[in-house]
Amino acid sequence: MIVTVTANAALDVTYTVPTLTVHGSHRVSSVTQRAGGKGINVAAVLAQLGHEVVVAGCAGGPTGEQIRRDLDVRGLSHRLTDLVGDSRRTVNVVDADTGDATIFNEAGPAQPKSTFDALVRDVVRLVQEVRAQVVVLSGSLPTGFPADAYARLVTQVHEVGVPVIVDADGETLALAVAAHPEIIKPNSAELASATGESDPVTGAAALRALGARDVVVSAGADGVLMLPAAGGNLRARLATPLSGNPTGAGDALVAALAAGLAGGRSNEQIVRDAVAWSAAAVLQPAAGQVDPTDVTRLESQVRTEEIV
Amino acid sequence: MIVTVTANAALDVTYTVPTLTVHGSHRVSSVTQRAGGKGINVAAVLAQLGHEVVVAGCAGGPTGEQIRRDLDVRGLSHRLTDLVGDSRRTVNVVDADTGDATIFNEAGPAQPKSTFDALVRDVVRLVQEVRAQVVVLSGSLPTGFPADAYARLVTQVHEVGVPVIVDADGETLALAVAAHPEIIKPNSAELASATGESDPVTGAAALRALGARDVVVSAGADGVLMLPAAGGNLRARLATPLSGNPTGAGDALVAALAAGLAGGRSNEQIVRDAVAWSAAAVLQPAAGQVDPTDVTRLESQVRTEEIV
User: Distance (Å, rounded) from C-alpha B270 to C-alpha B257?
Assistant: First the structure.
């Protein structure tokens, strides 16, 4: 069983309009609403590929109810902690002609300290109750959460003996590594921004000096780098890169890491899955989706190599 | 007591962003949410100027709950009929620098015939229960409502002996006049579009041939034309036109008509109020707002004249 934590879950709303005109008035021709946030996307990919998963995190108010209801409809188990106020929305305005998106991200309501304390308590309780093998912490934090929220969550989850994967950026990532999560998954830009190092191997070493253990770097068309604390760096990529929708590719990659850690797979197997799962996500129109037949087909096209 | 009906009530959401960039990703720096729709704005203006009013119309789902809660917070009594599905939202993206708005209007969920039947039943019951003196029907209809919904509502309200004001446009207006509402309030463009006549007096005569009674035309800086079925056409305007935010000026004008009809005021008094109330709304940043001191001050600046 895998638990994913989406501290700042959102209702992702997509508006389709004929053409977006700045300062114009638009009749929205279609509206779709889905529970969103990186941890929810990770959970959705895991479920589609046959893994048992529970969604944790925070949701509140009527929008929180819509998030919970969408998870129900999609068959994703959830145990969300109430936040104070109404969950945030993202509004994604898509031009019908071109498919191009213009995105508006709400910050969500500021939270008192009690919300974070409740989340920690709920996650630890859930992890014990479902005997989780891995916990995934993904995405941004609600306003008002402590900057080291992920470090504190990692510590609490470690106390009950469960490994943790962190997918975060900026200060949230830099502070999280102090608690030694088993895997962190920055992309190339996030790693460079957190460390000032453009070379991923050097960047990973810099984060390891702060406490990081295994570092997995998503590098777009350059594939996935697995940089374990124990050495044996690997790069995996498709023989021929795919083009498509990169949104959600990182979440599918994290899903593969979680499944691999839960299943005790080798680093080489994990990094192959990571490439295949994220490539399968690129072929889908929305985040949190993969087609299992794409995954099977793409696995055979992954090439791995040792790097130094 | 006045009853306003907002068949297609919305939650009006305003996002402030630094600058709107087409196909960009925006962090929304502030989010405000208010119950919206023309009838709700009419009610809000009436309440601010000391008139008793109840909001009727349709709302449903979690967004409907937010609409109801905002009306509670604003101290506006309401008796909204449940619609099937979740009430629509409008998203208004405002550039922080310029104040310019880009608007996205959801259509809202399509309604079965039973929703309209329930609205008619609820409005008639409410009108009798609160002994309404005037009913106001304002704005668009939910998808799936009969095109002659306003005509049917007018007929039912007339059966219990209460006069009706209709503020609508297009086919909704053209069909509504067949039921002889006491006042219709098109703006110049709506009147021209409904009748093909650019002269308001000729246009009003064309609508009267279809069943209209008194016609009040809002003509922006040209003021307000009162074109009664019994004759005695009046024009009223400010000695010096104001500049500001025209959104909601029409709703404040309708509020003045409703208050005038309820209070048995003369046409000259009503048209003076209509100008002052709508001018006071122009001075406010959002629809459904007036400052009573502005109204008092502006009343003295209204000039009326007879027209033929």
Answer: 6
